[in-house]
Amino acid sequence: MSGTLPPADSPAAPAVPQRLTVELALSEGPVLLGANGALYGLSDDGVPGDAVLEPLKITSISQKPEGGAQHPNGDALSVSRSFFRNGGGEINVLLQDVFARWPYEDPGLDEYLARVDDVVTQASADPNGDRFVYVPFNEPDQIWYDLGVEDRQRYEANRDRFFDDWRTVYRRIRAIDPAARIAGPNETGYHHRLMADFLAFARREDVLPHILTWHELSPDALRDFQGHIDDCRSIERRLGIAPLRISIDEYANRRDQSVPGQLVQWVSLFERNKVHANQAYWDAAGDLSGVVVRGGVPNGAWWLFRWYAGLTGDTVRVAPPRADAVDTLQGLASLDVSRRQVQVLLGGSDGDVDVVLRDVPRSVFGRAVTAIVAGAAWSGYEGPHAAPPVLARAIVDVADDGSATVPLRGLHRMSAYRIVLTPAGTGVPAPARVPWSASYEAEDAVVTAGEVRTHGTVSDANGYAASGTRDVGPLGTPDSRVDFTVTVPADGRYDLAILYGNGSGGPATQRLLVDGAEAATVPYPSTQNDAHRGRKDLGVELAAGAHVLTLAKGDAEVTLDRIDLTASTGVPTAAYEAALADITGQPSYDYSSSTGVGTGALVLREGDRAVFDVYAPRDGYYTVIVRGSAPVRLALHGAWTTAAPDRPSRLYLVAGNNRVAVTARKAAVRSLDVSGTGSTDGVLSCDAASAVLRGGAKLVADAHAPGGSHIGGLGGGPGTAEFTVRAPASGRHVLVVHYAHDERRDNGHAYNTDIVSRTADITVGAATPRRVAFKNTWSAHDFWTLGVPVDLEQGANSVVFANATGPAPDIARVELGRVVAGAS
Question: Which single residue of 152, 323, 346, 480 could bond 553 by disulfide (Cβ 3.0 to 4.6 Å)?
């Protein structure tokens, strides 16, 4: 074996590593990608943004009927536009979410049928009407019917009433739309008694659902789900019913959401059984159940689902150390013979793991493979996560018995990991550069005037996730502080990442002290609440040795979970492997060389396209270099440019994920290399004070706004704001809007945060106005950015914000960056 893998002598490594076995000869069937959906994962057309939605290849989501009163947003027809244009599969329409209260008010079946008529008539008339699935009843064991009652006689009476209503509603839907697909029974969990009775009744009455649904909302589901689905299949066999498609249209707890190492356990369970599944809706709509930060920024869980979306070919059997167990090492794997790739996703456990691949086909991979290992960490629900770093690149020999072993050391249970195997070519892949890093838990530090709290354990499954299951808070008194003792190996600059919560209702600060001396003021944007974790990044200079880093109270109140120190490596750089990009057409894969990123080259010809998902920490210009054999064409934000091999291009990226497409007449592309921190040199910028305001729009002083003020009173009538920007040249630009708003509409559900997006109609020059949704920023004084591609003419251009039908967000600044700025 050549190359570098994580060291086997990691201090955290147990004496005997756990073993995860991948049986490449035992296919489970084509990759389904069924487990990537969410309940109320979309809130509006454009929330979340296209660039974070499209890469996940979501097969199903669950939303309320158009105009439904259960929640303030998430209407199925409204979100269908963005869902379907980004390759989404189907939308489950929860018909009872037409009602406002929870538990649902019960106006009687006749009134409910009238609501059903309206919903199905409208949805079936939509151009995508065949892609809606109707769920007539949501959790009928608790809502209206009390099917969970133990007394047999009462259960049978309730059951029969439910069955009568199911038959009536089912037939009503099919009368309106004979091709309609219907899902149910949709209980809160799997119950053998009801499922056996329901399937027998539905078969007898010819009202079988097209999709069987139920919820898995307990940590025990990680242990019990296999038994549930096996029992369901046995009932079908006994009744002579062909296996129905299954959708677990609510799964996971708060402690799972946003946590890659937890979610990989659920995903492996559902993908192995080829079922569809949607994460539950515990908090706010529009973030794919804790996967997307703000409107378009990935967190660690987003990268797990991006990896999942990249699986191709067939899944193969994976044997974990303990099957069907809660909070243990689990995984899934795919084998694509045509691409000559194996991908393994795993996580859920601390310590050391040996991943053993059996029956590696020599005819496909030869006698050695290149192994690339990457890791996606937990960055909080609202913490951004850059492209997962490569932890190891190595050549691994295939043994005479057809096996290959990839040793992983020092894993963290909240992280997920990906291994990619490709045929080994000549040369050695570039060694992974893993900087020194250490983590320090707040609960293990010296705490003054604060409280150590426990969250997100198995017994508190709907508590929020916390590193080590504990955090420190509230830290709200003048003397509140947390002193971390840290030790660094060398003099230099270190990246400090703080996992925090800020539920104060506005921006907050803490004072950072190094060895008692004031070092910096740390600003914390608002989070949904004080346990809904965000991540703040900054730099600190440290001499080699031990130090005390203190985070002391500043303005408002902040909770602390953990800090991470990482040796700074200078300008951030990421290499995106072409062999793992999304493709259209029929490109080929060339593994003759393992140099560079190690995964060979993607060979593009006329008609082929590769799309890379490129992360940017902030809006601005970045250096992009194509590593390949010939010039290619790059497409970004609707602009095109030609890029020569190894020659830098200066491109404008928005904060979060960016989809960069590559085409060529003929080129073997190894990687797309991206570096930078988001330069604003050459960006056109206009603060709120420069706008011409009309119709009630007004300038408001705001210490938290960029430029010190924002425009209020926009929309809801004639209020408009007009900026004038002067472009040096015509072309495609990105309009970046710095905005804030905290509109909410409380629908009375204590466990949901019913935030509402605001919209603005943006008109650039003589172009048609474009309606854009702006997600709630958690407070009226937290300013986020949203990038909108626009075309500018050389010279003066007007940019007008308006909304005649409702309030627009408060706007503090607009910036315009030309997408292609030339060579770096």
Answer: 480
Please answer whether residues 652 and 620 qualify as being in contact, where contact means their C-beta atoms are separated by less than 8 angstroms. yes
Beta-ladder partners of 614: 658
Cα–Cα distance list, 558 to 239, 469, 477, 784 (Å): 58, 17, 11, 20
Q: How many CA atoms lie within 13 A of 640 on its CB side?
A: 6
* pLDDT given at position 130: 98
b/e for 377-416, b at 16 or more Cβ within 10 A?
bbbbbbbbbebbbbbbbbbbebeeeebbbbbbbbbbbbbb
Centre a 10 Å sphere on the Cβ of residue 101 and count the other Cβ atoms it contains: 12
- Helix H or strand E encompassing 71: none
Which residues in the chain show pLDDT less than 70? Answer: 1-15, 823-824
C-alpha closest to that of 767 among 791, 734, 733: 791
E strand intervals along 714-783: 720-727, 731-740, 758-764, 770-774
Q: Is residue 440 left, alpha or beta, with left meaning phi > 0 and alpha meaning psi from -120 to 50?
A: beta
Distance CA 177, CA 102 (A): 29
For the stretch 119-155, what's the b/e string if a residue is b when 16 or more beta carbons lie within 10 angstroms of its beta carbon? bbebbbeeeebebbbbbbbbbbbebbbbbbeeeeeeb
Question: What is the average pLDDT value for the chain, to the nearest integer?
Answer: 96
Question: How far apart are the C-alpha atoms of 356 and 195, rounded to whole Å?
Answer: 39
Tell me if residue 238 falls in helix, strand or coil.
Answer: helix
Sheet holding 132-135, edge to edge: 37-38, 276-279, 245-251, 211-216, 181-187, 132-135, 90-94, 60-63
Q: d(Cα 786, Cα 809) in Å, to the nearest integer?
A: 11
CB 503 within 8 A of CB 526: yes
Helix axis angle for 300-309 and 260-272, nearest 10°, is 30
By C-alpha distance, which of 100, 95, 88 is closest to 63? 95
Cα 521 off chain centre by = 30
**Amino acid 751: pLDDT:** 80
Alpha helices (runs of H) in 282-347, residue ranges in sequence order: 300-309
pLDDT tens digits, residue range 167-223? 999 999 999 999 999 999 999 999 999 999 999 999 999 999 999 999 999 999 999
Query: What confidence tens digit (pLDDT) does each residue in 510-545 have?
Result: 999 999 999 999 999 999 999 999 999 999 999 999
CA–CA separation, 288 and 705 (whole Å): 28
- Inter-CA distances, 665 with 578, 603, 631, Å: 16, 10, 9
d(CA 71, CA 74): 7
Q: What burial class does residue 637 get, using C-beta atoms within 10 Å of its C-beta: 0-12 exposed, 13-18 middle, 19+ buried?
A: buried
CA distances from 406 to 370, 416, 419, 527, 762 (A): 10, 15, 8, 39, 52
- Give one DSSP letter per residue of 542-573, joined into a string: E-SEEEEEEEEE-SS--EEEEEEEEE--SS-E
- Share in percent of the chain as helix, strand, coil (round to 5): 15, 40, 40
pLDDT of residue 8: 35
Residue with tokens 């439904």: 68
Nearest to 668 by CA among 623, 605, 624, 614: 605
Helix (H) or strand (E) holding 126: none
Angle at 628 between CA 626 and CA 632, to 5 degrees: 65
Helix axes 152-176, 192-204, angle to 10 degrees: 50
Q: Which residues of 176-208 are buried (b: 16+ CB within 10 A; e: fewer)?
A: bbeebbbbbbbbbbbbeebbbbbbebbeeeebb
Q: Angle 465-502-556 (CA atoms, 0-180°, nearest 5)? A: 150
The CA-based angle 417-420-421, given to 5 degrees, is 145
CB 256 within 8 A of CB 462: no
How far is Cα 238 from Cα 132, in angstroms, rounded to an integer?
A: 30
Residue 535 CA to its chain's centroid (Å): 15
Partners of 788 in the beta sheet? 735
The single-letter code of the amino acid at 393 is R
What is the pLDDT at residue 679? 98
